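Dear colleagues,

As part of the handover before I leave the project, I'm documenting each prediction I ran so the next person doesn't have to rerun anything. This entry is a single chain, and its sequence is reproduced below.
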Amino acid sequence: MNAAGGGLLPRWHRAPAAAGGRSFIVGLVLTSCLASGAIAQVPAPSLHGVSRVVEGRVAKPAGDTLRGVEGVWVVLHRVGADTAGPVDSVRTSPQGAYRIPFRQVVDDRTIYFVSAQYADIAYFSPPLPDAPSEDDAEIIVYDTASSGIPVRIHGRHLVLSGADADGMRDVVEIYEIANETDRTLVSPDDVQPTWRGRLPAQATGIRIGEGDVAEEAVRVAGDTLDVFAPIAPGLKSFSLAYRLPASAFPLRVPVDSSVALFEVLLEDPAIHVEGAGLAPGQPANVEGRMFRRFSADSVAAGSVIRASVVALGQSRRSLYVAVVLIAFGAAMLVAIARTFARRGSVAAPVGSPMPPVPRSADALAREIAALDAEFERKPPQDREMREAYTARRAALKDALARALAAEGTRK
């Protein structure tokens, strides 16, 4: 993948991500929120299985190559609608190699992946295919640093929906941020974030969506959004959704850091956008909904994008926009490539409730594994913390069951 403005990223820059997300972006899918109503029951997987072996290597950058890391625990995870947890584990050899035989449950809604803990950070592989190769199961780990690592914005996407009867509009923002070094950036404490962004002052109902950042690693205070998740080398995604009232327009969107590609998608023809060299592009048709598209390359820090309502017609039903960031090849990628062809602690909802941003089964599975890894590494010291862990894990598993059911329905 050619990183905009950054040349060809080394191989390890496309390696598995640190706990809380996936390793890389291959597309953006804009789709409607899950419809309300009963969720189909997910049948338990078959009790029989198939003998499989996953073998690979844990390695870290060493100059222009990768070197195996000895003595690292590698854990094979299984996440399905009924259960989620580790299957087996093993330490790596002096060459960083590992081999784990297991019985694979025969169920296309069950996900397997491997993780490795290094320098107190968990790294995850992509979901494993039925017959994983060594490349599929290779995990790249990194030394860490708490300063001196720039985080660049390679892509920023702003999506504005139509207005509802109260004049409220749903907004989705997607960031593609890059750590182009060979070390993972970590926060030195609970005060200094690894990445900081800004939100419109009148944003309400803020939700963290799909991407490489778990919602527990994000704090919102006023118009400041701080990310405390580790940022491993490579291109990472991060998304959020919120609502804006009519009084927020004309909307002023400052660009605090330079952006290789800034893209704006507008559903409402009454919205006019300008600034930062934005130019109109091919409209995007997402599940029958038309969005006007504007984009600009190499947007400099200090630029300002302005969105204003030029005409108000009859109030229209709000079409909620959600974001799913996928990390492995799928049929959707072709449609997205055609549609978006281009160069090169969270705030509680305020006012009208906003539907949650859908999350993929892949992301939810990783978040459960990351939560378990943190629990094993630092067991809670009091009952309240243990209960919070149990409740969070139960909520994630419930969300995973719904996601698996929805994905099974779409197949």
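The longest strand covers residues 49-62. Residues 19 and 370 are 5 Å apart (CA to CA).

All the best with the project,
I.
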